[in-house]
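Cross-posting from the chemistry board since nobody answered there.

I work mostly on the small-molecule side, so proteins are not my area. We synthesized zinc ion and want a rough idea of how it might sit in this target. Sequence and SMILES are below. Is it possible to get a predicted 3D structure of the two together?
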Amino acid sequence: MPELPEVEIVRQGLQSCTLALPMAGGVVAHPRSIAHPPDPDRFLAGLVGSHLKCWERRGKYLLGHLVRGGRPAGVWVVHLRMTGQLLWLSQSEPVTSHTRVRLFFPDGQELRFVDQRTFGQMWWVPPDLALSAVIPTLGHLGPEPLGEDCTPAYLAAHLGTRQRPLKTALLDQTLIAGLGNIYADEALFCSRLHPQRPCHSLHPWEWTQLHAAIRRVLTDSLAAGGSTLSHFRHVRGMQGHYKVQAWVYGRTGQPCRQCATPIQRLRLAGRSSHFCPRCQPSVE
Ligand SMILES: [Zn+2]
C-alpha cells in the first residue's frame, strides 16, 4: 500500500502535469471507485470544465483544489489504498482492464486511475461543504510526520501514555498521519526499538530517537522515489527504488545491515513486522 513517500511522489507528479489545464471530459468505468457524490455522473460534472490550482497531500490522501471561472470549484480527493495508480498518459494508450476512471485533459492527454483491487476511492467535495463533512477520517488525522507539529514531545505526549505496542501506535493514522507497514518497521529499526515495546515503556530520549528515525526513513524514501513493492508508480510510470536500501522491511532471513543477525518477522495486529532481534531488543 502506498504510504506517505509514495503518495507525496504522486502529488509532485500531479503538480507537474495537471495544473491550469481545463478538464474536457471523463469516464467512470467502475462506479465503486467513486465514493462521493454517490452518482458518478455528478462526480464527473463536478470536475469537468474546471482546472486544478494545486495538489496537496494530507496523510495518504491527495487533495486537488479545483477552480472554475476564477472561483473555487471544490476539491478532488483521491486515496490510492492498496493498488491504485494515477497515470498521466496519452488518450491513445490502450485502456487496460483495471482502468476505473479517466479524466481527459487538452492535447490528447489524460489522467487515468488504474486500480486492480478496486479499494481506491475518489471524492468530489463541492465548495460549500467541508472536507471533513464528506470524509470524516480527514478531520481526525494526526500531524504530518515531516511537519512542525510532530515533535518528540508530541510523540511522548500522545503515544507515550498508551499500553499498546509501538508498531500498532505508529500505524494509527489518528496519532500520526501517513506511516504504514514499511516505514513504521524502518523507523523502529533506525531507532533500535522492538515493534512490541509498549508505548508507555519508552524513555524521553527514545521518543527523540524515534522522531529522528521517522523523518530519516521518510526523507530517504522520498529521495529514492518511494517504494515499489508491486503497483506503486510515479504518474509518468517510473518505479520507486527504496526497497533495495530498506533496513528490515521485506528482508526476513537476510542479514541485518548493522550486525548480520538474520532479520525476523512477527505478526502484530494482523500485520507483519520486520525487525533485527539483536539491534532491537524486546526489553530494556
Ligand atoms: Zn542487527
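Reply from a structural biologist on the board:
Welcome over. Reading the output above for you: Residues 4-140 form a domain with the N-terminal domain of MutM-like DNA repair proteins fold (CATH 3.20.190.10). Residues 248 and 274 are 6 Å apart (CA to CA). Happy to explain the C-alpha cell format if needed.
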